[in-house]
């Protein structure tokens, strides 16, 4: 790992930032989240296999996971994670000043009123996450935030829209279908930044990246930010930092 450099809010890093995060290949189409968590664990010296992390991580009914479930798994492994959330399905922007107990109270109220069973479970997971000591932040999503986190030596595990990031058609039954398909969610790890080109470095566990065989690539800052925000469509839109 390169030594940390101070990055002031609102400006770009003057030097490149590269964190030596390994890239693991996800075992199947629904285990991108735990595989990314295993990548971050390995970088931090926490020696758990991808299979062990998959076993530790709660899942959705479809076999996939959510950023908050990854946060719960990290808490169970002795970390104190922070989730930067941009998910308006779960959190209201006016909740920004609330304390941990205040957020839990609001989430319990919302859980009683939403109709979607999946959304109810996701809200319940955030209640558990906060109760276990996890942190939630509402910082504006801009390149400067990502740069500051990376500069402090923190890889960023993010839930985003693969459909937008990859610039591909929507998906139906694991096949591209621009008419009948739905947007696809995904997890990647952001682990570096090149200031000259304003591009972030990604470690992506997928085997189906249209423009990368290795899962190691860079992406323009504005495109990454947009992909993260559009992760709200698939119940994520967040950053997870250990």
Structural class: alpha+beta
Low-pLDDT windows of residues: 1-11
Report mean pLDDT, rounded to a whole number. Answer: 92
The level 1 CATH classification is Alpha Beta
Beta content comes to 15-25%
The main sheet comes to: 8 strands, mixed
Task: Quote the CATH topology.
Answer: Cathepsin B, Chain A
* Silhouette: globular
Elements, N to C (H/E): EHHHEHHEHEHEEEEEHE
As for the number of domains, it is 1
Instruction: Give the helix level as a range of percent.
Output: 25-40%
What is Rg? 17 Å
Number of DSSP helical runs: 8
Number of DSSP strand runs: 10
If classified by CATH, what would the architecture be?
Answer: Alpha-Beta Complex
What do we call the CATH homologous superfamily? Cysteine proteinases
State the separation between the terminal residues, measured CA to CA: 16 Å
């Amino acid at each position: 790992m390169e030594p940390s450099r101070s990055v002031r809010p609102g400006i770009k890093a003057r030097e490149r930032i590269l964190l030596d995060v390994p890239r693991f290949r996800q075992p199947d189409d629904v285990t991108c989240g735990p595989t990314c968590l295993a990548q971050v664990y390995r970088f931090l010296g926490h020696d758990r296999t991808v299979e062990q992390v998959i076993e530790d991580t709660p899942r959705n009914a479809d076999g996939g996971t959510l950023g908050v479930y990854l946060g719960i798994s990290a808490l169970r492994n002795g970390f104190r994670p922070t989730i930067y959330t941009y998910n308006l399905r779960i959190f209201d922007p006016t909740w920004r000043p609330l304390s941990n107990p205040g957020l839990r109270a609001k989430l319990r109220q919302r859980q009683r009123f939403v109709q979607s069973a999946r959304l109810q479970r996701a809200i319940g997971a955030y209640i558990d996450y906060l109760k276990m000591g996890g942190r939630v932040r509402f910082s504006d999503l801009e390149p400067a935030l990502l740069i500051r986190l990376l500069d402090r030596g923190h890889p960023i595990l993010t839930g985003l829209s693969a459909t937008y990031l990859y610039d591909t058609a929507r998906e139906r039954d694991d096949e591209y279908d621009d008419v009948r398909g739905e947007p696809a969610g995904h997890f990647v790890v952001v682990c570096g930044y090149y200031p000259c080109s304003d591009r972030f470095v990604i470690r992506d566990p997928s085997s189906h990246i249209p423009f990368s065989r290795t899962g190691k690539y860079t992406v323009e800052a504005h495109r990454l930010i947009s992909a993260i925000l559009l992760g709200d469509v698939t119940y994520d839109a967040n950053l997870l930092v250990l």
